[in-house]
Amino acid sequence: MPPIQTTDLDSARPSPEALLASATSEHRGRLKIFLGAAPGVGKTYEMLLAGRARRKEGADVVIGVVETHKRAETEALLEGFEIIPKRAIEYRDRMLQEMDIDAILARKPQLVLVDELAHTNAPGSRHDKRWQDVAELLEADIDVYATLNIQHLESLNDVVAQITTVRVRETLPDEAIDKADEVELVDLTPKDLIQRLHEGKVYVPEVAQRALGHYFSEGNLTALRELALRRTAQRVDDQMLTYMQAHAIPGPWAAGERILVCVNEHPSAAGLIRHARRAADRLQARWVALYIESPRSHQLPEADKNRVAQTLRLAERLGATAVTLPGRDIASDVLNYARANNITQIIIGKSRRTRLFELLHGSVVDTLVRKSGAIAVQVLASEAVESEGGGTALRPQAQPFAIRPYAEALPLVTLATAVGYAFDRQIDLPNISMIFIPVVLYSAIRHGLLPSLFATALSTLAYNFFFLEPLYTFTIQDPQNVVALLFLLLVAVIASQLAAQSRAQAQAARRQAASTAALYGFSRKIAGIGILDDLLWAVAHQIAAMLKLHVVLLLPEAGELKVHVGYPPEDELDEADLAAAKWSWSHGQPAGRSSDTLPGARRLFLPLRTERGLVGIMGLDRPRVAQSPGPEAEQRAILTPDERRLLDALADQAAVAIERITLAADIDQAKVEGETERLRSALLTSISHDLKTPLASIIGSITSLRKFWPSFDEPTRDELLGTVQEEAERLTRFVGNVLDMTRLEAKSVTPQLLPVDLAEILGTVAGDARRALALPGLTIETAADLPPALIDAHLFRQVMFNLLDNAAKYAPDGAVRVVARAVPRGVAVEVLDEGPGIPPGDLARIFDKFFRLEVGDRRRAGTGLGLSICKGFVAAMGGSIVAENRADRPAGKSGALFRVTLPAAPASLPPPEELPE
Amino acid sequence: MSQGARILIVDDEPAIRRFLKASLEAQGFATDSAENAAQALAALPRLKPDLVILDLGLPDLDGLEVIRRVRATDAVPIVVLSVRNDEPGKVAALDAGADDYMVKPFGVEELLARVRAALRHRLQQKGLGPVFRAGDLAVDFLARKATMAGTELKLSKREFDLLRLLAEHAGKVMTHRQLLTAVWGEAHRDDVEYLRVYVRQLRAKLGDDPADPRWIETEPGVGYRLKAE
């Protein structure tokens, strides 16, 4: 049950709703409504004039849809406007023309003119109603001018119908006008309007004559005009109220009024709802529509159940909070709810039941009035207007007739008679009729009223026949015995009533228990599942089985809504279904069959929502029983309110479970993305430092040289030119590294493996290093028995240079030794420095791409690629490389050690001593 | 006026120190060098330089932290060098107290111009007269009025406060936050939209073209600067 908000309007703070409302209207298009009391007052004309004025000011104005009804003055005004062509929609072999909302959205004008806001779109359009199209245009920041006749307002629908005896079917929620930024009343006196009709300015002559007789009588027009004027005036009040609330002006607005309207299955309930809305508007009160679901509700015909659901939805559309509560005693349940929610006024329809029914069952209205205390109760007469849909006779579902409850009475009465006969002989009972009471009670408790009455009749007859004087006749002499018979009858009625009630309660309790058990079972089944697909399947299967529905679940995948599972699995969505699902996803509201949006779809789509937001969409379809697929069948609600409640609870649980799993997946994904992001930013930092630092030196030196060439002395010029050369070489090395890395990444490093004498090549490396790096303490030590290694000389040279470059960066002072020696089946080359060593925690990552000791804007390290390239190259040559901290240094001293192990070249000739004998 | 000023160069790249030293000395400045934050912070009280050129990427201490430590005791103008060319980095350095920001690589002439502007700004602040003049623009701090070629500009209170702040720091980028805090107060330090509106109005009154400003220059994403020259 949704809680009623209890905002304290008394405190002098801007009410959050008011602030929110004025804030959200800022980034939307503005809606101006030209409101008229009746057709022909000149709304379209006024709207076009206003549109022209805006265009003159330079605004981009187009016509979305304008009906001129061939009125010459109006048509003249169309000239010069860009008219968005209407869209043709095929419906039952007819082509209907509708406003092309997509074309307007694509065209995106500043202002669009839309006639007849209350128009109902052709089936198959995106929205049922034109006002919904307009809402979407406003959402897209397009201003809208629209026209509207007062009779189309939902809350005035009944009043207008009473005035004109014509019920208008095209209605729109009052919200639409409440949310308009501006309402202009296009007013014309009834006399003038009738004059215009006579002149044929409104309708063609013959239609005009007919209209004059009916709708356009002066009395009607006066009443409609008054309605329109009052509604506009009320809107002005609303605006002032919003303003006052937003600015925290302590005002005289009614605070704390709360209205409760009781809903039942009768068609007149819709009228009650509209009345309540008007009352709530007048009082500026929040209001609630309450339906008490009694055991009787379950026996209602489908049509009535649907009507209850429709009525509650109507209430929601009109701004109420719709609440359904299970209950037994309607009056006391209503009062309990009212007290708990500070309701100040209850609106209820006058009872339509017979006096007798009320005597037996008690009247809800009477009880309410009697017990309501401080709460005002307003009892409304049933509508004078015959409500839409026509009343279906209220009739409990006929129980199938069973013979057994009656047949059972016969032997029981016989038995009682026999027992009574036996007793009558032995003891003198004051009234032998007591013998029959157990029979009647049994029948009442077991089978209900009618069988127990039958048993009573039977017992009465038996008693009369066998025990009352004159015996063996059906006549009664003693008036005392008549009384006894009457009491027997009374016992039967009361007992069967009590029994029937307790049976109904037991049934309701069983249903409740069943649905609770179902919910519990459902939550237990889905709780332990950790894999999304399994979960979705379980959810679809469970819901399908519990509610006898076809279920599909749609979840977003890479930004697209996709069907994840369906039960039965072979179900597929057609275009209309997909459109409805997407709409539901993007708007977070139900769409599709039996909803307001895209009702042409086969399924109903409901958003799966958690506190954090939407997680998916559930599509439901009731398997069709042999039924003509007419529009009535399609419009029918898929779910009864009962099922809808259960489904909502199931959907909530499913949504939470889905979110739980997707959140876990999101975290994993975020980890991977975080790692990728780290690499990317490391690359950027690397490029920033390693490209820009030498470039900064080069550009700085060259611009200095150019500007100050004459004033620099020779050594300064030489020094700066030297800087340019060194830095350009450094840049070359960096670019080389990046290229090497790219080659490694592309796996295009193909080493030319040849036997190489390491002593020779290490000498060359030392030469490179001395020239390019500041390594004063570099020494090369080569073992005498060093075998030739099977390596690519070029790659090896690069590896060694990078290792020495690394040593130059981290350990520029002190000795750097390169030691080459033989190991089993290979050679090892070690680079040892006397620098600070490698933090133990970083040993494992030191060969990672872009890894450097010390991060941030500090630039101690170089490319972050050097060691990674070493590892790649060494691996390509079939060797290995490790990094460790030196253990051979005296205590307190440190140093890093890099050891490259490479395969030895197979000796071209085996050593002589191993030659076979 | 800039002749003889003493400049401390703080950068760990010898190549950069080299050309900065050569160029600055060719312009008549005296220079000192430091290759890390520790050396620089130790040298400051002793050398009392008139300006510090500070590389943000020092090996031993984060550049922003260096600025903060200098600012804790010293008002010396700081021109920052950095390879980072992003607005948040610039704003952070300027908010921490740097006077200007150069993105590497840069031409030496531009750097010298910034160095001169920063020095002039500091000199002006030291002996800031009651009237700021740059070209045709004069801002009288005491009389609270501004004139353009002798004609008084009709400025609202906020507009004048904004112009005064920019004039007091002419040549220096003032970050959005610095301007907003000083003119509108701490509560509005993030309301950049206010600033845009007022700068637009101020430019209109100064007859300034936002596309090619003579007076108020936009540092996108960072702040505004009143051109002094």
Describe the protein's topology:
The complex is a heterodimer of chains A (917) and B (229).
Chain A: H1 16-24, E1 31-36, H2 43-56, E2 61-65, H3 72-78, E3 82-83, E4 87-91, E5 94-98, H4 101-107, E6 111-114, H5 130-139, E7 143-149, H6 157-164, H7 174-178, E8 182-186, H8 190-198, H9 205-213, H10 218-246, E9 258-262, H11 269-283, E10 286-293, H12 302-317, E11 321-326, H13 330-340, E12 345-349, H14 355-361, H15 364-371, E13 376-380, H16 404-426, H17 437-447, H18 449-467, H19 479-527, H20 532-547, E14 550-557, E15 560-567, H21 575-587, E16 591-592, E17 604-610, E18 613-621, H22 631-635, H23 641-708, H24 714-745, E19 754-756, H25 758-772, E20 778-782, E21 789-791, H26 793-810, E22 816-823, E23 826-832, H27 866-876, E24 880-885, E25 896-903
Parallel strand pairs in A: 1-7, 1-8, 2-3, 2-6, 6-7, 9-10, 9-12, 10-11, 12-13, 20-22
Antiparallel strand pairs in A: 4-5, 14-15, 14-18, 16-17, 17-18, 19-21, 22-23, 23-25, 24-25
Chain B: E1 6-10, H1 14-26, E2 30-34, H2 37-47, E3 51-55, H3 63-73, E4 78-82, H4 87-96, E5 100-103, H5 108-126, E6 131-134, E7 137-140, E8 145-148, E9 151-152, H6 157-168, E10 173-175, H7 176-183, H8 192-206, E11 216-219, E12 223-226
Parallel strand pairs in B: 1-2, 1-3, 3-4, 4-5
Antiparallel strand pairs in B: 6-7, 7-8, 8-9, 10-12, 11-12
